[in-house]
Amino acid sequence: MTTSSADPGSLLARRARLLAPTYQLFYEQPLQLVRAAGVWMYDQAGRRYLDAYNNVPVVGHCHPRVVAALTHQARTLNTHTRYLAEQPLQLAEQLLATLSLPDGRVIFTCTGSEANDLAVRIAKGVTGGRGFIITEFAYHGVTDAIAGMSPEDGGPLGPGVYTVAAPLGPQRAASFGERVRECIGRMQADGVGLAGMLVDTIFSSDGVCAEPRGFLADAVNAVHAAGGLFIADEVQPGFGRLGEAMWGFQRHGIVPDLVTMGKPMGNGHPVAAVAGRSEVFAQFARGRRYFNTYGGNSVSCATALAVLEVISAEQLLENARHSGAQLQRGLRALAQRHSVIREVRGAGLFLGVQLGANPASGLSGAAETRRIVNGMCRRGVLVGATGRDGDVLKIRPPLTLEAQHAELLLTALDQTLQSAT
Ligand SMILES: Cc1ncc(COP(=O)(O)O)c(C=O)c1O
């Protein structure tokens, strides 16, 4: 058993002494959260917070059905994919049924970073190219290759990595395909062979881009015409968050060559995967194996199966659609009264609220966003910030969010916008 310290101050000091300085804490007054259930998280003093930030607990924190499946499997058997077993097959079957990839196959990993790393390796192996297109402020994970494709983290781009401006706003979305074509032209001029394009289909770190539906299709056609593969990173939007379908790419009417998924897949337990057409994997597998010790282990598969069951049994796509629409209506109503809200973007329960400078306080858009994130935390609602300029409120609650929770969030935002703190 670990012991829990009652004093956030001493935890802060120990963190500074024990953990590498790469870690960052949320909020001016960092939270010490000690338990959670459904949409609520509780701090060490027993205060509860509405979680409108964490996309991982997609079916709600510590969902009893998921916890029961996880603990039952942990008590029964936990082993890897080198033995015959039901769970990885059931999980692959169920995922593929939602993905509508022609003759699809799955490889399990433990994290979204591993899934993207593998998908990029496959694309390079299959095409013989080294060049990749990503968006300007993308985040795709932490391995060496993928950190080079994650400009949000501030490091240099990897070799052969080219960026295009994110499809923020209808105009830039409409011309996204054009920008991708122009980028392919730049690569060709540099003598870099195209391996593919990797995008998060909700463009979360770029600031949330969802509309108009279908804008990705032209870009994907351009990549295919140039011989590259399209990888849909579904680590953020996947598992029903966007309300209309299980996967973000499905809003664009496209069929990716590879799909990566993670985060919500285990509702907090690390499990992730790459799915794709069998011929893509077959070409990659020629003369090569891929074994990931924990990818596809029995406990992870049982947990992910339970997540899929709950999404279906509790009709969470429908709820994401309805609660998301309620939130969007409320946010647009707030925009009528608060001019700092410039735009409300997103789909289902993945929303981005674009803020501008506050003429009353003189705060820049980014400073106003920080003020609101902290003010809402003090009012008991957790949201985050995103976008290249850090001026977009990121709202991504569990898909179990109910009307009363959405009202609470809107009230807290209204109060924070009105107040000076
Ligand atoms: C779009 C996207 N892809 C991939 C990842 C990496 O996933 P993980 O942290 O599980 O490695 C993240 C993590 O934030 C992400 O947001």
What does this structure look like?
It is a single chain. With 421 residues, the protein is an alpha/beta fold. It contains 13 helices and 15 strands. The chain has helices at 8-18, 64-76, 86-99, 112-127, 144-147, 169-174, 176-189, 216-225, 278-285, 298-313, 316-337, 365-378, 403-418; strands at 33-37, 40-43, 48-51, 104-109, 131-135, 161-164, 194-200, 229-233, 258-261, 272-277, 341-347, 350-355, 381-382, 384-386, 392-395. The strands form 3 sheets. Strands 4-10-9-8-7-5-6 form a 7-stranded mixed β-sheet, sandwiched between helices. A 4-stranded mixed β-sheet has the order 1-2-3-13. A 4-stranded antiparallel β-sheet has the order 11-12-15-14, covered by helices on one side. The protein is globular and about 60 Å long. The structure holds pyridoxal-5'-phosphate. Pyridoxal-5'-phosphate binds next to helix 4. Residues 111-113, 116, 139-142, 200, 204, 233, 235-236, 262-263 line the site of pyridoxal-5'-phosphate.
